[in-house]
Amino acid sequence: MALGTQTPKEYYEGSNKGNYQYITATDIINNFIVSQVGDDKIIKSAKRAEVAFHAQRGIQELNYDTVNSLKTQEFELPPSLSVDLPHDFVSYVKITYVDDAGVERAIKPAPLSSAPASVLQDDNYNYLFDADGNVLIGSESTTVSRFQKSSSDNVQRDNIDNLEEGYGYNVDFGKRYGLNPQLATKTGFFIIDDTNGIISFSSDLKSKTLVLKYISDGLFADGDMRIHKFAEEAIYKFIAHGIITAKANVPEYQVNRLKKEKRAAIRSAKLRLANISIEDLTQIMRGKSQQIKH
User: Fold this and answer.
1) Residue 213 — pLDDT band, cuts 50, 70, 90?
2) Most buried residue, 151, 198, 239, 282, by most Cβ within 10 Å?
3) Which pTM value belongs to this model?
4) Calpha distance 25→87 (Å, rounded)
């Protein structure tokens, strides 16, 4: 039986293109119950809710480090120099700004600052508490507000000034001349405040167009709950191993067998999804004789 649900005309005239490379969570659950659960199978019985739980866990884990599940957002940085984290954000991969030629320039995380919680205090510097006895936290910390007013040039200048201190009469001992490579950038810095769900940027990025690349777990919406067909076998092995591990009186050799099969399937999925091209490798290796200067 064919897997297509629409004609080529419906596909090309529609807006939902590229979906044939994925399999949905509903299909994964149905296929697993039909093919892996039964009296003559290793898994004698399993509730649909149990299969659905392990399918969701498998989608999460495969999205983190196996499936190419990056999401992107392009936005213009507002005057507040802060933006909210995406609704399905788990971890960031890269943040860039777009120059006039449309080339993305990487923005680095601020190595010398952070986004601490701002504790509210009275005139005597005592902590303030709410009616339940919890410490009151301000909406914005002084650290973040001062960071947003700074630029990458200020960060580099301050770092050099703090390092260039003499020791006694030997004023040359311990000095650093030039920039610290960790701070050598003209593209600005950012801070992620996970507690409040905000990304703050330095002032030299004001009004620039930024691109955020991040990882999601693929469970926020029904449309996200899918897996690439290259990793379909891996998700089935993940579900089987999860169900068997949770059952009592299962021989250890069966658990170990499914564990090895899961690892092998995930490794195979990574190789397939890596999309390694001989032409690309050849092009890269043409520059192998070039000397990298430090």
Assistant:
1) very high
2) 239
3) 0.74
4) 21
